[in-house]
Design a protein that fits this description.
The radius of gyration is 18 Å and the shape is globular. α5 crosses α6. The longest helix is centred in the C-terminal third of the chain and has 15 residues. The strands form 2 sheets. Strands 6-7-8-3-9-10 form a 6-stranded mixed sheet, with helices on both faces. A 4-stranded antiparallel sheet has the order 2-1-4-5, with helices on one face. The chain is α/β, with parallel strands linked by helices and about 250 residues long. About 35% of the residues lie in helices and about 25% in strands. The mean pLDDT is about 95. It has a domain of about 80 residues. The protein binds adenosine-5'-diphosphate (ADP) and magnesium ion. The site of magnesium ion has 4 residues, from α1.
Length: about 250
């Protein structure tokens, strides 16, 4: 379970309040879509969960019984093994092969000297290969990542996140840099791992129809505030209008 209490974040010495007093709990195995206009705070929200950005003092994020907001650097590295993060721009190492990129998902499980030498165990290689097959790229195992299409690169990023054997995946508009047709491939994979493995998925989406199609639960953000929390069925046109009514300069 993810429990978030009075989560706040401001930028530019408080001039921009990107998140305002967010309180929400996510149950294990939920597939949650976060919607809202550009600038609503979706990326800040997702990144605050695993502290890719530091929330304001007084914010609390718990994963099960561990308070993320209270951890030191080493403890944070450990808990981040359990949280896969998928970026809009894939964030692969272009010069590495598909297998090497996915193996980086195993880094948190190995000693630093072994990592420096690029030594991975047979088990790591099996896990990485398994997820590369699951995302349909087994024939690209030894292809350099910069020779793949954008859609294939994002599938590699999903395999890398899965190779961490996470309990949570956070995905920040994972199809925003892709042809809209590929949205279903990417969300389909996230949904599959959510259903088959019980992984909790939080995904930022700007296309409303995708959110209502894939998510069990939708969180609506507007100017840093969470103004909707409910099922796709509960999200009516009035809610939608309110969520998307704010313009951020
Ligand atoms: P979304 O992902 O919904 O588009 P963001 O979380 O990126 O929203 O941004 C929320 C607000 O915070 C916006 O007003 C944005 O301009 C501001 N913001 C985001 N990142 C920074 C930053 N690094 N420095 C200053 N302001 C930022
Ligand atoms: Mg964003």
């Amino acid at each position: 379970m993810i429990r978030i209490e009075t989560l706040n974040k401001h930028y530019n010495n408080g001039k921009v309040q990107a998140l305002k007093d967010i309180n929400v709990s996510i149950r294990d195995g939920e597939f949650v879509a976060i919607i809202g206009s550009s600038g609503a705070g979706k990326s800040t929200f997702l990144r605050a969960i695993n502290r890719l950005i530091e929330p304001a003092d007084g914010s609390h994020v718990f994963i099960d019984d561990t308070e993320i907001t209270g951890l030191n650097k080493n403890q944070l590295i450990k808990i981040r093994r359990r949280i896969g993060f998928i970026f809009q721009q894939f964030n692969l190492v272009e010069k590495l092969t598909v297998l090497q990129n996915v193996l980086t998902g195993r880094i948190g499980f190995n000693s630093v000297p072994a990592m420096m030498l690029g030594l991975f165990s047979q088990k790591d290689i099996e896990i990485a290969t398994h997820y590369i097959r699951e995302v349909g790229l087994i024939e690209k195992l030894y292809t350099r990542s910069d020779n793949l299409s954008g859609g294939q690169q994002q599938r590699v990023a999903i395999a890398r996140a899965m190779a961490q054997e996470p309990s949570i995946i956070l995905a920040d508009e994972p199809m925003a840099s892709l042809d809209p047709k590929l949205s279903h491939v990417i969300l389909g994979l996230l949904k599959k791992f959510n259903k088959e493995r019980g992984i909790t998925v939080l995904v930022n989406l700007h296309v409303l129809e995708l959110a209502t199609q894939y998510a069990d639960r939708i969180l609506g953000f507007r100017l840093g505030e969470m103004v909707f929390d409910g099922t796709p069925e509960q999200l009516d046109s009035e809610h939608i209008e309110h969520i998307y009514s704010a313009k951020v300069e």
